[in-house]
Amino acid sequence: MALKVALLGCGVVGSQVVRLMQEQADDLTARIGTPLELAGVAVRRLGRRRDIDVDPALFTTDAEALATRDDVDIVVEVIGGIEPARSLIMAAMNSGKSVVTANKALLAEDGATVHGAARANDADLYFEAAVAGAIPLIRPLRESLAGDRVRRVLGIVNGTTNYILDKMDSSGASFSDALEEAQALGYAEADPTADVEGFDAAAKAAILAGIAFHSRVTAADVHREGITEITATDVASAKAMGYVIKLLAICARSDDGRSFGVRVHPAMIPRTHPLAGVREAYNAVFVEAESAGRLMFYGAGAGGAPTASAVLGDLVAVARNRLAGARGPEESTYADLVVHPMGETVTRYHVSLDVADKPGVLARVADMFAKQDVSIQTVLQEGRGDDAQLVLVTHRATDAALSATLEGLRELDIVRDVVSVMRVEGEDAS
Amino acid sequence: MALKVALLGCGVVGSQVVRLMQEQADDLTARIGTPLELAGVAVRRLGRRRDIDVDPALFTTDAEALATRDDVDIVVEVIGGIEPARSLIMAAMNSGKSVVTANKALLAEDGATVHGAARANDADLYFEAAVAGAIPLIRPLRESLAGDRVRRVLGIVNGTTNYILDKMDSSGASFSDALEEAQALGYAEADPTADVEGFDAAAKAAILAGIAFHSRVTAADVHREGITEITATDVASAKAMGYVIKLLAICARSDDGRSFGVRVHPAMIPRTHPLAGVREAYNAVFVEAESAGRLMFYGAGAGGAPTASAVLGDLVAVARNRLAGARGPEESTYADLVVHPMGETVTRYHVSLDVADKPGVLARVADMFAKQDVSIQTVLQEGRGDDAQLVLVTHRATDAALSATLEGLRELDIVRDVVSVMRVEGEDAS
Q1: Is there a single domain that holds both residue A150 and residue A270?
Q2: Is the pLDDT of residue A263 over 50?
Q3: Which of A287, A360, B215, B415 is most buried per CB count within 10 Å?
């Protein structure tokens, strides 16, 4: 007896899910122990030309009816966004279906509701495809590392911004030129906000942090900065110092282990760091655990086929569970750790200042750092006629201390401008 | 009610398993839903000083009695080797226990027997720790990629040999000096045969190939060459050409998809390839799947704590299954593909010859390649008085064609010596 699959959404990912279900039908049957059968495909509009070969009778615009149909066993949601995806997933689970979703926005915004419904209905909710496309990350984090303690997750989880930053780094292009090229190549959308402002990465960071630290995390808990302010000059001066700028998602336990921070922002990492070599639209994530040490996962973080591969992996797992009358691991939030405010984040900083070029300037600047207990590792001063550029790299300090330092610096008459401030990451992680 | 765990073996890995079970007891209880309790530890000799804090009454030399004890739920086997590990695992499964093992040798030598027993007893057999230590590889391959078609697995799966080759590359050391250093640092054993002759990597390759291609593979199916013949000159000349020599495990589907090859041998890879940057005793594995594309997994491939982390992850999964009355995915060999002989392997080759330095030599050498249909990509000739060194890199050709070419070359009077032959990998995989 076949297991019946309802597909909600038939865009880039959905059509690849259908293709794989067809092309690999025999393999899937062998791996699951019974065939999968496509019960229906919910779309917004009928009659649209699609790249897949499916009986037209399977298409419907009534997603809810399909998701709750008696003969459906598993619902695959690849619509994205909060609504109607959430209502559909809830309806499906309340009707006893297992659910596979690629919906990072929903899980990050309102994971509590959907995970709660999974628990209440004893239903499977799998979402490997929601983070980093084809890269197995959710399963390793929640299963392979289930006997370990994760300290930190640090990675490149947005392909669009990585493509743009990589282009800026390799060609010296400005942000807007690199964005335009990414759009022309289909790596960035017409409205690139979700990517370049870090919303997409923040949703993924929230999901990863929740799993890594067994706590509930939402997108609102994530400190988020995008890459729109990064200039060609920032990229070039990072390059000159042996660094590359990447948009990182960082989930890190505090030193006492009782809280953690989640943040997404551009940062400088040494060119020798493995993440520095992640080019174009690829993704890569470092996971540091107490016993496992440092692990890295690398691959295509987006795209129809890679994301569909992750969906299919979940589909096989959910189907096997269904046959066995079992279910996979449910949401784990027992640790209930606190997300600490950004001010408590400890990292290093690269600060570039325009200052007056006269005696005593360095002493006064250095004094401002010292007052806030921010220790300086390196200083580079370069005269340019009347004024000078001062580039400082600090030792580890809290975000709050650095902010207070910057405030103080801005009040000094000898500081003409705080040109740029960038966090420095990854020097202890390679 | 606690789930009772019998630990067979208490060496480097076993003692770390005990430590983690103790230190993370609360977390494990929360993640599983019930506590794990150490029911006993089977050791070869009692009264030995150990680094763990365990009630001495838990130690026993009667491993079989412990593994089959009525109150034991899960057996963790970290003894290694074929016997008595196999008998103990069989006895445990025949008594209805679930089993977690790190035993690559047994799985590669006689996987059929232990997997068969798991199936017959409806028991779980988990073995993430058997390949690449803490790196999640088994679970991603058999679960995350369950809906995809794996084309190739290519990686560094032996830390000892990677340490030695990395040392030879970075310091110019000879094989024996690098081996000595690895031994002094504990990366290599007193008898390094299993590592340096490629047996360890071959066992892992067999396990990976079996999972990747859903077929049964044993160590005997693996073409195996070690690194003992690699000279400092080989390493230096690879370096001069922009390559680094690594011991690779390669499992690759044939172009028609109906067979596959499994091999372990030293190979030259371009320095720009991500595997080239894998230093010291680290491991890294590339997996190429049709839809997922190229994935890489990187981390510590050995060591007590990393391996114990993998064991604990399996322990949590097996414990959850036990509570749910379910079991994980069983061995999948339905595809039953043929392992093709080494002669059918297609790759590129770097061949270094000592030849007489006179007119017509290159033509005669090139003709020998052409006769076997082996196409040459680059040639470098360097005169050295009476004779010359000829370095050729070929395009893709079968191993059989290359072997026939070499045989022909050795018969030419103008060829004084075939100095070295090395496969070139990874140029299409970065």
Answers
A1: yes
A2: yes
A3: A287
Q: Give the model's pLDDT for residue A428.
A: 58
Instruction: Tell me, yes or no, whether B291 and B142 share the same domain.
Output: yes
B211: nearest CA partner in chain A: A31
What value does the mean pLDDT take over residues B296-322?
95
- The length of chain B is 430
Provide the token pair at B44: 């070869």
Q: How many beta-carbon contacts under 8 Å exist across A and B?
A: 191
CA-nearest residue to A311 within chain B is B147
Judge if A274 and A146 occupy the same domain: yes
Q: Which amino acid is at B175?
A: F
Q: Do residues B171 and B266 make contact, with C-beta atoms less than 8 angstroms apart?
A: no
B232-283 pLDDT per residue, tens: 999 998 999 899 999 999 999 998 889 999 999 999 999 988 899 899 999 9
A144 vs B310: CB contact, 8 Å cut-off? yes
* Chain A partners within 8 Å of B146 (Cβ): 31, 312-313, 316-317
> Cβ of B373: how many Cβ atoms within 10 Å?
11
In a domain? residue A335: no
CATH number at residue B378: 3.30.70.260
- Does A358 qualify as catalytic in the annotation? no
**B32-81 pLDDT per residue, tens:** 999 999 999 999 999 787 888 999 999 999 999 999 999 999 999 999 99
Is residue A332 in some structural domain?
A: no
CA atoms within 13 A on the CB side of A112: 7
On chain A, the residues whose CB falls within 8 A of the CB of B211 are none
Contact B397, B371 (CB under 8 A): no
Residue A178: partners with Cβ closer than 8 Å, 6 or more residues away: A163, A164, A165, A167, A168, A171
Q: What are phi and psi of A252, to 5 degrees?
A: -135, 130
Q: Check whether residue A319 and residue A282 sit in a common domain.
A: no
- Contact map slice: A 286-345 vs B, CB within 8 A: 289-300, 303, 305-306, 308-317, 320-321, 324-327, 329, 332, 334-335
Q: How many domains does chain A have?
A: 3
Q: Find all residues with CB under 8 Å of B90, minimum gap 6, and list them.
A: B113, B114, B117
Give the closest of B136, B292, B329 to A299, CB-based: B292
Both B160 and B270 in one domain: the answer is yes
Q: Which of B204, B239, B246, B358 is catalytic?
A: B204
Q: Tell me, yes or no, whether B292 and B371 share the same domain.
A: no
The sign one gets for the Cα dihedral B43, B48, B50, B52 is positive
Residue of A nearest to B273 (CA): A277
**Collapsed DSSP state (helix, strand, coil) of residue B21:** helix
- Check CB contact of A285 with chain B, cutoff 8 Å: no
Question: Are the beta carbons of B306 and A300 separated by less than 8 Å?
Answer: no
Domain, as residue range, for B373: 342-424
Query: In this structure, what CATH number is given to the domain that contains residue B236?
Result: 3.30.360.10
Do B295 and B183 reside in the same domain of the chain? yes
List CB contacts of A63: < 8 A, sequence separation 6 or more.
Answer: A8, A42, A79, A84, A88
Does the pLDDT of residue A407 top 60, yes or no?
Answer: yes
Q: Say if B270 is an interface residue toward chain A (CB within 8 Å).
A: no
Q: Is the pLDDT of residue A354 over 80?
A: yes
